[in-house]
Amino acid sequence: MTIMKSALLGSAAVLVAAVSAQAADLPSKKAAPATYVKICDAYGAGFFYIPGTDTCVKLGGYVRAEYQYVPAQNTYDRSGALQTASVASSSTPKNLQDTTGYEVRGRIDVDARTPTAMGVARTFIRLRGANTSGIRNTAITTTGYNMSTASTSGITVESASVQWAGFTFGIAPENYSMMPSHFYNANPWSGFPNGMKQIAYTANFGGGITATVALEDRRDHGYGGNTVHTASAGTDVVANLRLDQSWGFAAVHGLWGNNSYYTGTTGLPIISGTDFAGVGSTGAVDTKNKSSYAIGATVNYKLPMIAAGDQVWFTANYADGALGMLLSDGGLSNVNSPANKRLMGGLVRVDANLVPTNTGTAAAVGNVKGWNVAGAFTHYWAAQWRSNLSAGYIEFNPPTQGQTTAMAWGKGQLQVYTGSLIYSPAKDLDIGLELQYASLKNKVQNASSNFVAAGSPGLSENNISTKLRVERSF
Fold first, then answer.
1. What ranges do the domains of the chain cover?
2. Whole-number Å distance between alpha carbons of 84 and 95
3. Which pLDDT band holds residue 270 (cuts at 50, 70, 90)?
4. What is the pLDDT of residues 379-414, one digit of tens each?
5. Residue-wise DSSP of 161-183
6. Best CATH choice for the domain 60-473 from the list 3.40.720, 1.10.8, 3.30.200, 2.40.160
7. Alpha-carbon gap, residue 227 to 271, rounded angstroms
8. What angle do CA 276, 280, 283 make, to 5 degrees?
9. What percent of the chain has pLDDT over 90?
10. How large is the C-alpha radius of gyration of the chain?
11. pLDDT at 79 > cutoff 90
């Protein structure tokens, strides 16, 4: 057995050697080295290098499903007469209005950064697609929400900017409002989630102190309320000075713009649907040279002594002809702009920031003035449960001169209270329910007979709006 075992082992060794020698003579092909994504930690978590470059990129976005209910309210225009069988008017009885709305959004974010000798060159793109229906339908052209109106889809560019050496070019967040945007409904402070076309410069002085000066497109601001026919009237100058510290931040912010109007014999209206006598009529020269401005202050304070993540914000603002700096246009009523999605049955502001000279029938009048105060509070009940609360008061004071027989809106006073409860069962997954209550007191100057007959020489209305939101970010 020993002799046989030795023979077998020897034969196997010879066979292996022969096969190995033959394999060595065969041509071989080595696998190409694999290219792996390299993590870029210079700009925070989530960035990676684009292969073969020194540019780091981060991808993100969210999917949001939102459901809204608003009890119907009679809506009135300056005639005061309600329609009875049609939704083709801005005066619409509540029995002809839809009360529910649906909106589904998908958003994609791309953030690319490259180091240069003068700082990081950043390109940021944020695109949002949405499908809406009911009172969320932005395609509706009257304040009467018709349930038979088809759903609408569209793409919105929230941001598309280049930032380098302190400059920002393109569409980016506006530079006036400093209040949080985590509320679902409209807020009693300015806020424009779609971004502003702008040229801006931010200087960093160290110690948490920064200052920004920007030229922003007035047409992107909420409640612009005007069709401008004068040179350079479409640009606002916006500035802020901000201090960021471990306890939070404090900022002052301001805006100045050209509020002038002109219409000639071409028949172009100054303001569409105005409530002031003569203004907006066609075929006559009507001019008014006027500027507008707004100034405000905002403070944020972190409250870790209550719970981790707790914060509070306060803001106060005054506006002279720049009403968009007082009120978010994302859900409160405006009978001339129904895409803002009805909440109140009346008007929460006058038709325009400026009431110009009437067409030869009365004296010139000036800007609408207003002010607001508001606060917001975020509290974490537990790691997975948090609440947002806000309260605000807004007052508008239109001029009273220059009115003849037409009805005009007087002082408007709006109180808004909002509360939400949000459950996050997993990271970046939110299920939230929000309830908003609004109370409007709106005086009417020279009310029409129809308006008086309807029992509404002035408007004092209350209403609620509720939203359910499910959102997953990545």
1. 60-473
2. 9
3. very low
4. 999 999 999 999 999 998 877 655 444 446 678 889
5. EEEETTEEEEEE--SS--S----
6. 2.40.160
7. 6
8. 135
9. 47
10. 30
11. no
Q: What is the DSSP letter of 14?
A: H
SS3 percent helix, strand, coil of the chain, rounded to 5, is 10, 45, 45
User: Alpha-carbon distance 299 to 325, whole Å?
Assistant: 16
CB 456: neighbour CB atoms within 10 A? Answer: 20
Element (H, E) at 23: helix 2-24
Phi, psi of 19 (to 5 degrees): -65, -40
> Is a pLDDT exceeding 50 seen at residue 324?
yes
Cβ proximity of 221 and 175 under 8 Å: no
Residue 295 to residue 255: CA distance in whole angstroms: 6
DSSP state of 44: -
Residue positions counted in the chain = 474
User: In which residue are the tokens 């339908």 written?
Assistant: 137
For the chain, give the mean pLDDT.
Answer: 79
Collapsed DSSP state (helix, strand, coil) of residue 60: strand
Token pair, residue 413, equals 């006073």
Neighbours of 221 (CB within 10 A): 25
Give the confidence band of 287 by pLDDT, cuts at 50, 70, 90. Answer: low
- Partners of 460 in beta bridges: 441
Express each pLDDT in 34-52 by its tens digit: 567 899 999 999 999 999 8
Between these two residues, 88 and 462, which has the higher pLDDT value?
Answer: 462
What pLDDT shows up at residue 226? 47
- If pLDDT is split at 50, 70 and 90, which confidence band does 87 have? very low
Residue 308, judged by CB atoms within 10 A of its CB (0-12, 13-18, 19+), counts as exposed
Residue-wise DSSP of 249-274: EEEEEEEEEE--EEE-TT---SSTT-
Q: Distance of alpha carbon 327 from its chain centroid, rounded?
A: 11
Enumerate long-range contacts of 49-57, CB under 8 Å, 24 or more apart: 50/112, 53/114, 54/114, 54/115, 55/112, 55/113, 55/114, 56/112, 56/113, 56/114, 57/110, 57/111, 57/112, 57/113
pLDDT value of position 338: 47
